[in-house]
Amino acid sequence: LYFRGFWLFLGQSPPGKPEIFKCRSPEKETFTCWWKPGEDGGLPTNYTLTYHKEGETLTHECPDYITSGPNSCYFSKKHTSIWTMYIITINATNQMGSTSSDPRYVDVTYIVEPDPPVNLTLELKQPEDKKPYLWMKWFPPTLVDVRSGWLTLQYEIRLKPEKATEWETHFAGQQTQFKVLSLYPGQKYLVQVRCKPDHGFWSEWSPENSIQIPNDVTMKDTIVWIFVAVLSAVICLIMVVAVALKGHSMVTCILPPVPGPKIKGFDTHLLEKGKSEELLSALGCQDFPPTSDCEDLLVEFLEVDDNEDQQLMPAHSKEHPGQDRKPTPLDPDNDSGRGSCDSPSLLSKKCEEARANPSTLNTPEDIEKPENPQTSITRTWDPKSTSLEGKIPSFPANGSKSSTWPLPQPPSHPSPRSSYHNIADVCKLAMRMAGASATFLDKTDTCASRSSKNVETGGEKIAVEERAVESCHSKTDQGTAWLLPREKTPFISVKPLDYVEIHKVNKDGALSLLPKQKENSNQTEKASTSENSKEYAKVSRVMDNSILVLVQDPQAQNLASFEEPAKEAPPSLQQNQAEEDLASFTSAPGTCGPRGGLDYLDPTCFMHSFQ
Amino acid sequence: ASVSAGPLLPLLLLLSDLLLCQSVASLPVCPSGAVNCQVSLRDLFDRAVILSHYIHNLSSEMFNEFDKRYAQGRGFITKAINSCHTSSLSTPEDKEQAQQIHHEDLLNLILRVLRSWNDPLYHLVTEVRGLQEAPDAILSRAIEIEEQNRRLLEGMEKIVGQVHPGVRENEVYSVWSGLPSLQVADEDTRLFAFYNLLHCLRRDSHKIDNYLKLLKCRIVYDSNC
Where is the composition biased (Basic and acidic residues) (chain A) (predicted)? Predict the structure, then answer.
């Protein structure tokens, strides 16, 4: 104890704890463990390795401290068992004492790390008519027994031009040779190879081997690829340009717009011409769906299309002079490829967006029928009626320089404001439409007012409307009671969509409706009768003659005379139309008409009008 | 880290399975029911080696996953000594011993080991589900190993039928009695039971793979792989 203290005083101590830091087997037949000594405590320290195997009680000492270098223990084949756990401990001993390391559990099965492959050879092969390539060959590490299948090796090679920084790595599988095709002429290449056993670790990279690629080696592929790339780029460019120019038409060709609904059997031409009987009888076909009889009277749907201006124009132009002329039938059911713009659900949106972004949409083509007037009296504005807008373009026509009207323009110029003029179309058409539904009026107002809000095109539109109104007006002498404004309506105020009130029914079965009015504009005498309203006209039944029989309202008594064109200020186009309508009726003022509440009409009144 | 690797591991499994299927699919197949069809011994061995290699990879990954997740700091490795139920089967312990065994005996030995694992693998799958927060990596591998083990057994029986037909040894295998340990309430004991089972599975699958590769090179390639 005294001596120990003396040595401690001199700074000496038992050795520090050693540590086994690596055990490795190069071929799964032998293995080696290396340790790291701890502090030696200032004294010469002796290290011993002791172990025992799984399933044995005997402790052995390391058989070979030399072969693998200092601080190592080499287990030869005789001392190596696979699939067996070794518990290995290092003991450091010096004069002061000894210290043992923590036991290390080693199973040779899982510590296999072979040497690198050997004898790597490189050769540049240049077969005739083929690309030259670099051919490399190697051999498995000498210690590894691959022949018997004890170990199965997989290889990996890497190469790079001498000056490059990044290696190009290739997996070679179980083969011991490899070809490299992409080489730069005139470069000196460095190549390395390594291997890995089937359930072990990668070896180190073999020493570098180099080869010089001569300058005259041609890599023809490169030129071909450059050529191909340039060609593809040119083609892509052409395609892009083509798409850009014709993209829209291509898109519409591939993805035709969704058509909107339309009513078969409704002929707006007939409406205009006053052949209301035919029209309504067509509508009132007894069989449902309409039979072919009806179709005779049917006009194909006018598809208002930029490209079809030619088609429509003649039809319309002929219409102007001669009322009897039947419009050229167009394809009745050709509602494909067009009209997504005028799909009913979009209409309201369009009214709003007309100015916001005039699109290049084609004008809605389909002419839809407003619902059977006999049944839709009190409906709110039915967007379906937008189908009528197809007719509109004819009006303004021709005189309009405004690009809002598609027809007058040459087909090659799709109206940039098609969406805009769609609204206008609708409005115009609404104006022209028979009193089938004065809801048109509402919409017209709405559209008109909204459009009028747009500074940019407001003026034009109004001007157009004026013309439309005029031209409409010019046709009023047909004896049919259509809602045609007699006056110009330079301004059309907005009105929210609303219900209409039945004003009267003429002999043709057309219903003249008055709009529900919230405001009072300058009305003349009996306008008051048409003002109060706000009630529905209830259809009780339909009579044979396409007459709509409405439920009588007990209250309403005085009817507004048919002559009560309530001349309102323009803001209410509907009113004007109603007035016109009234004016055109040729019946004596009777007691029919909207009562004070304008709710129910007396059916008997209607009978009168039919006389 | 294992959690983040969670979604990747099934994918890896799938990929490796696909590769496995591809490599197997490229070999000629006997339509089921064909009597005279004979897949060549070379093809049988190739397929068997592919399966055994795959099974050991799965076992190794499964063990590592479990070790990382449940066994850290518990010193299980010190206890998993001489604790495999297949220790009673006298298997060669190094290359020389393996090369000295006659290939028929080696084949039978392989069959015995494979059969010894039918039962434990079956229970492993059901009991792994009961592990606390059992990661899908372990469960999916367990299921895969069980299935592939069955296929390997079938393949081995075909090989045996070709190598020395007519000799049908009794179905000898080691009985596994570790099920109660997998179900015990004490978590530490139960986890060690799993650890031990996975440790033994990793080892035995490596043995089978090694023996088969030896046999393949010896029988099919005449010791010249």
Answer: 316-328
State the best of B74, B217, B223 to mutate against chain A, taking most chain A CBs within 10 Å.
B217
> Per the CB < 8 Å rule, is B213 touching A150?
yes
B188 is in an annotated binding site: no
What CATH code would you report for A1-107?
Answer: 2.60.40.10
- Confidence band (pLDDT; 50, 70, 90) for A43? confident
Tokens 């040119």 map to which residue? A234
Residues 6+ apart with CB under 8 A from A542: A284, A374, A375, A548, A549
Distance, CA of A523 to CA of B43 (rounded, Å): 103
Fold match flag (A1-107 vs A118-218): yes
Per-residue model confidence (pLDDT) at position A271: 65
The answer to whether residues A72 and A48 touch, using CB atoms and an 8 Å cutoff, is no
Question: Nearest residue on chain B to A85, judged by CA atoms?
Answer: B81
In A, which residues are within 8 Å of B80 by CB distance? Answer: 85
Which residues in chain B are contacts of A197 at CB distance < 8 A?
A: none
Distance from CA of B41 to the nearest CA of A (A): 17
Collapsing DSSP states into helix, strand and coil, what is residue A190? strand
Which residue among B96, B207, B214 sits closest to A149, beta carbon to beta carbon? B214
Q: Please give, rounded to a whole number of angstroms, the shortest distance from the CA of A84 to a CA of chain B.
A: 8
Burial-class residue B168 by CB neighbours within 10 Å (0-12, 13-18, 19+). exposed
Q: Does A29 touch chain B (CB under 8 A)?
A: yes
State the best of B206, B218, B223 to mutate against chain A, taking most chain A CBs within 10 Å: B206
Distance from CA of A370 to the nearest CA of B (A): 59
Contact A598, A529 (CB under 8 A): yes
Instruction: Tell me the C-alpha distance between A434 and A509, whole Å.
Output: 10
> Between A55, A105, A149, which is nearest B216 by CB?
A149
In this predicted complex, what is the ipTM? 0.84
**Domain coordinates in residue numbering, chain A:** 1-107, 118-218
Distance CA(A574)–CA(A578), nearest Å, equals: 6
Higher pLDDT, A295 or B208: B208
Helix or strand or coil: residue B191?
Answer: helix
The answer on pLDDT for A470 being more than 50 is no
Domain count, chain B: 1
Conformation bin of residue A440: beta by default, left when phi > 0, alpha when psi is -120 to 50:
alpha
> Tell me: the pLDDT tens digits for B6-61?
566 666 666 555 555 545 444 455 655 555 566 788 899 999 999 999 999 999 99
Structural domain boundaries enclosing B207:
39-83+93-165+176-221
Beta carbons of A199 and B82 less than 8 Å apart: no
